[in-house]
Amino acid sequence: MGRADIEQNPELLRQALKRAARLELPVVARSLTEAEVAAHERRGFSCAAYGLGLFVVWLPLALVFDGDPQRFRDALIVAPVSLLVLVGIAWALKWRRGRRSDYVDPKVVIEIGPERLLLTVGESVRDLGYDAAPERIAYLRSSRGMNFAGLVLDGPSRPIVLVNFDMLNGRDAAAALLGRCVAAGSLKSPD
Fold first, then answer.
1. What is the per-residue pLDDT across 28-45, written as a single tens digit (0 to 9) for each?
2. Fewer CB within 10 Å of terminal CB in the chain, N or C?
3. DSSP code of 127?
4. Helix (H) or strand (E) holding 9
5. Is 99 exposed, middle or buried (0-12, 13-18, 19+ CB in 10 A)?
6. Number of domains, the chain
7. 172 and 110 assigned to the same domain
């Protein structure tokens, strides 16, 4: 995921405003809980392990039962290599899961309403207007270009990244915030 200046990327802003037009206010985004992050990691690990396990089992079996003696020799080479690949990917997924195991929910809640932005971090609540526009936009690169993913906001202690990877409804809240900033005049419309 990349980050860029909003003013320099009108296409990303257009995508966000198109998304914001479909949303009904208020839009609420919150940080993921520890249980949600753990469940997401478990799903990714089990899907990858299952898929790779099928590959490790079925590819050598297909080569063995082909009937060609050369295929049997190929299976003797492919099976250990497939197993090593499976072990390597499983280790990488386990390492990634371990990295997120120390995740602590920052308890961030962002409510984008018709008149104001309500930012709650832990016990601290800030009531903000839409006169100060965010400056950084988050995007995902694809073969067709860049796609709007969210926003990067200045938080009380660290930046708050409004994307679906870190927050529930993060991208919708980011789009709604940009829509409200354009409506308030703090951000220039790209059209």
1. 999 988 888 878 777 777
2. C
3. E
4. none
5. exposed
6. 2
7. yes
Q: What is the dihedral of CA 81, 82, 83, 89, to 10 degrees?
A: 110
Model confidence over 131-187: pLDDT tens digits? Answer: 776 767 777 776 677 888 888 887 777 788 888 778 899 999 999 999 998 898 888
Domain that includes residue 144, residue range: 2-32+105-184
φ, ψ dihedrals at 150, nearest 5° = 160, -155
Residue 82 lies in a domain: yes
Q: Are residues 81 and 135 in the same domain?
A: no
3-state secondary structure of 86: helix
Do 142 and 157 belong together in one domain? yes
> CA-to-CA distance for 180 and 178, rounded, in angstroms?
5
Shared domain for 111 and 179, answered yes or no, is: yes
190 inside domain: no
